[in-house]
Amino acid sequence: MNIIVGSNNPAKIAAVTDIFSQDKITGIQAPSQVSAQPFSDAETRLGAINRATYCLQEASGDIGVGLEGGVMYVNNGLYLCNWGALVTKNNNVFTASGARILLPSEIENELNEGVELGDVMDAYAKRQDVRKKEGAIGIFTNERISRKEMFVHVVKLLYGQWEYAGV
Ligand SMILES: O=P(O)(O)OP(=O)(O)OP(=O)(O)OC[C@H]1O[C@@H](n2cnc3c(O)ncnc32)[C@H](O)[C@@H]1O
Ligand SMILES: [Mg+2]
């Protein structure tokens, strides 16, 4: 199958490649049509669906996959959240979310000032391109779970639901 992924972020591409290991994977830049930094579950999920849908509109593929990172409040705590969507040629849409962890209040303050998490993380961790490598989840879990590994879980949830539905 031809799998189109709505991103060129290596952490996202690697996660899809791990799960769709027999298939051809192509990354394209797909607009999420939500904020660059989504701030709720609903917005992050919509970004993933929009990316997946765009993939099959713009490229000839069998399956479109959208993966989107965001943050969301649970009571007073700001959590990292991630969503994935898988869209088939017949317009079946499957969605799944990833692991969540609480972000430190310094990170929350910067995000509330409008800085994107990717940029905040590079400054905070004194590293480059955290978003393409271990991710915020990698930094704050002492690298026990990388951004790729977190997305592998999301893509497995998508793959399994699609397989179960048999569409
Ligand atoms: O090229 P794309 O696919 O857009 O990849 P991205 O790294 O920008 O990722 P998202 O748009 O899905 O994430 C939205 C924002 O949140 C940031 N972000 C989300 N999860 C992150 C993580 O685990 N580590 C670092 N930044 C993260 C990301 O850098 C963006 O600023
Ligand atoms: Mg982005």
Which key phrases capture this entry?
167 residues; alpha/beta; Maf protein; six-stranded mixed sheet; 6 helices; 42% helix; 23% strand; binds inosine 5'-triphosphate; binds magnesium ion
What does it look like?
This protein has 167 residues and is an alpha/beta fold. The protein has one domain (2-102, 146-165): Maf protein, CATH 3.90.950.10. The protein is built from six helices and six strands, in the order E-H-E-H-E-E-E-E-H-H-H-H. It has helices spanning 10-19, 41-58, 105-112, 117-125, 135-140, 147-165; strands at 2-5, 24-27, 63-74, 77-88, 93-97, 101-102. Strand 3 and strand 4 (77-88) form a beta hairpin. The chain is globular. The chain binds inosine 5'-triphosphate and magnesium ion (MG).
What's the gist of this structure?
The protein is of the alpha/beta class. It has six helices and six strands, in the order βαβαββββαααα.
